[in-house]
């Protein structure tokens, strides 16, 4: 999925280097016409290494360069001179990147820590020079090992956003507005569906110098788990969150029904998502008077099986209480 400079899914081709050949050389110098074997070993081929970088938030740098080939190892030389190893290639990726085999879609590994390094493709081993093969009965071996070939494959890089709290809701539920109010993030905001086409991250600062990361996941529609709309691109980002905050506008036809639809989409995509802590926020509640608020509160208390609260990103109603509730759940 890409929009602007946000890219969270790319396919790349990578090849590690071949190992250098070992040398088949017999020592020769003045007054030593029949020296023994002294062929050196070949160098190792270069690795393809993926490295975590906490300062990256997207895979955009792979958008225009998708082929990577490491250097081959150099051949060994005379006088037991070893060939140089091929230069490794480091591919820096954001934290939360999953690496898969493009052909089988098997998960190979994932990068979750800053500075974490994983060798995705190993360079071929360098061949041994003929010096290694001398024996009492064969003092002048005239053979050496060739270098082993490197590896090559297509890799899928898939980014799952790392955040403490994930905002879940239908398009136009007010997620971007809430994120802009309680964090320093500046997401695109508009009064029409699918304003957000990429996950937005922001840091929420709370009392006592506490903070946590919140992600505005693009709006879910019914059928998202089956790939309807853009749902299958977005849902994977929710897997990384510790707490799910369901945002449902106060003017929804049926608040409980909307929550059940959202929950059902998560369940169909990955049942384990239901094990996460959940909190429901009724947004745009500044439109409600006290009498209507009380009526909705009574209905939710009877039907909704998760904690909920009323908030308004415009008036600030319930925003501090929301931050306290989320911080409490993260602490637990």
From TrEMBL:
It comes from the Bacteria. It holds the Pfam family GTP1_OBG. Monomer. An essential GTPase which binds GTP, GDP and possibly (p)ppGpp with moderate affinity, with high nucleotide exchange rates and a fairly low GTP hydrolysis rate. Plays a role in control of the cell cycle, stress response, ribosome biogenesis and in those bacteria that undergo differentiation, in morphogenesis control. Residues 163-331 form the OBG-type G domain. One of its GO terms (biological process) is ribosome biogenesis. InterPro entries: G_OBG, GTP-bd, GTP-bd_Obg/CgtA, GTP1-OBG_CS, GTP1_OBG_dom, GTP1_OBG_dom_sf, OBG_GTPase, P-loop_NTPase. The keyword GTP-binding applies. This is GTPase Obg. It is found in: Cytoplasm. GO terms for cellular component: cytoplasm. Its EC number is 3.6.5.-. Mg(2+) binds at residues 176, 196. GTP binds at residues 169-176, 194-198, 216-219, 283-286, 312-314. The keyword Nucleotide-binding applies. Belongs to the TRAFAC class OBG-HflX-like GTPase superfamily. OBG GTPase family. Residues 4-162 form the Obg domain. Its cofactor is Mg(2+). Keywords: Cytoplasm, GTP-binding, Hydrolase, Magnesium, Metal-binding, Nucleotide-binding. The gene is obg. GO terms for molecular function: GTP binding; GTPase activity; magnesium ion binding; ribosome binding.
């Amino acid at each position: 999925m890409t929009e602007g400079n946000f890219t969270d899914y790319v396919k790349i081709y990578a090849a590690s280097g071949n190992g250098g050949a070992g040398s088949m050389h017999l020592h020769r110098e003045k007054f030593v016409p029949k020296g023994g074997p002294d062929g050196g070993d070949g160098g190792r081929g270069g690795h393809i290494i993926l490295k975590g970088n906490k300062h990256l938030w997207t895979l955009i740098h792979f958008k225009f360069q998708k082929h990577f080939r490491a250097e081959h190892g150099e051949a060994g030389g005379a006088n037991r001179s070893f060939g140089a190893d091929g230069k490794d290639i480091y591919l820096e990726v954001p934290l939360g990147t999953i690496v898969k085999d493009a052909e089988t879609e098997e998960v190979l590994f994932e990068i979750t820590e800053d500075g974490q390094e994983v060798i995705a493709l190993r360079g071929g081993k360098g061949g041994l020079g003929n010096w290694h093969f001398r024996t009492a009965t064969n003092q002048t071996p005239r053979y050496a090992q060739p270098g082993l070939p490197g590896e090559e494959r297509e890799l899928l890089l898939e980014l799952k956003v790392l955040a403490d709290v994930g905002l879940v809701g239908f398009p136009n539920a007010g997620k971007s507005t809430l994120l802009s109010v309680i964090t320093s993030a500046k997401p695109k905001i508009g009064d029409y569906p699918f304003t957000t086409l990429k996950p937005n991250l922001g840091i929420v600062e709370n009392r006592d110098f506490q903070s946590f990361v919140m992600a505005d996941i693009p709006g879910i529609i019914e059928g998202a788990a089956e790939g309807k709309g853009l749902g299958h691109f977005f849902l994977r980002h929710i897997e990384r969150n510790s707490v799910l905050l369901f945002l449902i506008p106060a003017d929804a036809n049926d608040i409980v029904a909307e929550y059940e639809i959202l929950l059902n989409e998560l369940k169909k995509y990955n049942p384990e998502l239901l094990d996460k802590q959940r909190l429901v926020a009724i947004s745009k509640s500044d439109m409600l008077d006290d009498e209507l608020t009380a009526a909705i509160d009574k209905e939710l208390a009877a039907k909704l099986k998760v904690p909920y609260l009323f908030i308004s990103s415009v008036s600030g109603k319930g925003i501090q209480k929301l931050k306290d509730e989320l911080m409490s759940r993260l602490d637990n």
